[in-house]
Amino acid sequence: MSERWIRVAAHGDVPEGGTLAVDAAGEPVCLFNLAGRIHATHEYCTHEEASLADGYIEGECIECPLHQAQFHIPTGQVRAPPATDDLRVFAVKVEGGEIFVDVGGG
Length: 106
Hints:
With 106 residues, this protein is mainly β. The chain has strands at residues 5-10, 19-24, 27-34, 37-42, 56-58, 61-63, 70-72, 78-80, 89-95, 98-102. It has a single domain (5-102), classed as 3-layer Sandwich (Rieske Iron-sulfur Protein), CATH 2.102.10.10. The protein has no helices and ten strands. A six-stranded antiparallel sheet has the order 1-10-9-4-3-2, with no helix packed on it. Strands 5-6-7-8 form a four-stranded antiparallel sheet, with no helix packed on it. The N and C termini lie close together (6 Å).
């Protein structure tokens, strides 16, 4: 899969310990700022269509606001049901204070 870097936000748009839902060329992405490091996953819980940007962060995990499924943010792995499918995780780079997400190519 080829790289397809999309500028999605400024680093300052995602407060430390916070989230931001963005669109990366039609791909719904949720950005997370964990101790100054930006991570990106698919925006929606794999159990139901709830935005993880509205979820609760505890450590390196996000809890879905709808049914409390939990996911490990850096890896996307399910940590608590009812979700059974992992989240898609995207590569992130920060250059010149801008956040880019690799949504992949063909």
